[in-house]
Automatic annotation (TrEMBL), chains A, B:
UniProt KW Zinc-finger keyword: yes
Entry function: May play a role in DNA repair. It seems to be involved in an RecBC-independent recombinational process of DNA repair. It may act with RecF and RecO.
Name of this protein: Recombination protein RecR
Record family assignment: Belongs to the RecR family.
Organism of this sequence: Aquipseudomonas campi
Pfam entry (one): Toprim_4
Keywords of the record: DNA damage, DNA recombination, DNA repair, Metal-binding, Zinc, Zinc-finger
Amino acid sequence: MSFSPLIRQLVDALRILPGVGQKTAQRMALQMLERDRSGGMRLAQALTAAMEGVGHCSRCRTLSEDELCPQCADPRRDDSLLCVVEGPLDVFAVEQTGYRGRYFVLKGHLSPLDGLGPEAIGIPELLARVSVSHFAELILATNPTVEGEATAHYIAQMLAGKGIILSRIAHGVPLGGELELVDGGTLAHAFAGRRPIAD
Amino acid sequence: MSFSPLIRQLVDALRILPGVGQKTAQRMALQMLERDRSGGMRLAQALTAAMEGVGHCSRCRTLSEDELCPQCADPRRDDSLLCVVEGPLDVFAVEQTGYRGRYFVLKGHLSPLDGLGPEAIGIPELLARVSVSHFAELILATNPTVEGEATAHYIAQMLAGKGIILSRIAHGVPLGGELELVDGGTLAHAFAGRRPIAD
């Protein structure tokens, strides 16, 4: 290793970023040092501010530095719809669909093998919120994985018979794909969920 | 955009890193916030320390926070050899070959179209260093690109007739590759530079 100690520390610290290995970290460190020191300082300040300042929204549990996140604080959103997702990035993804109801953000999915039961991912808080609010529909938008399905199924069981419509986002073929590349399970869901073509 | 301001700032700041777009920056920011805040703080500190503390080695011009970088400060290295490279990452690459002479780090390569002449990349400093030192050989290890070749050629012209051996790293087929995948120019160099097989 032939870098000086400060550069070596920076390279090591950059490796905590997902998908960044030794070579990429070196390139990042030297590019900032040679061409963009003000950008590097801005990044350091943004990191400090975010790591110290960002907590969780008291209502939906997503990441936010305010008591309420932008989605919970917005009075124009539809209070009769609640969308349950596995993490903050999913909120961002669902926002792109045009959905304008409320959110509840779990801490991941049920995973008994990793010791993650209902308490660990925040299901009691979800049930508490549902019991004091008046949602007409709860959209379960956990990931289309085995764990995500199990989590959605568990939540649906806990809320059955409470007069709330429980829905699950549709499984099917993604837009822009080719049928021959779609896996059998997905295609089976797409067939089972087929709908008549509207005139 | 549905992130709170501090998270948005962090995502924007992460995009100065080479190869990091919007989606990757979001993933990086949320992963640090959810799983590794101490790592994020360490990164912020390492960034601040490096951006403020790292300057250039007074002798070889590579990045270093000390007056002399580790390569220039090491008394056991061979003072008769000088390797000229285009940037600090190249020092790291050359170190892996086992080379244990001295270095001079240019600021890139000659590029008249971008207004980068000999002064801009540090050639006067190189000539000054060569004139006060006693190098037996100068190894021109600029990149094997048109600009790198031109830079090596220019330096060789400036130092011709001073009694120093001027050498250029060999061009040829890289180890582990396949001939059919090597471009014609490289293969032509490999043929022109062929050597008898030692017994």
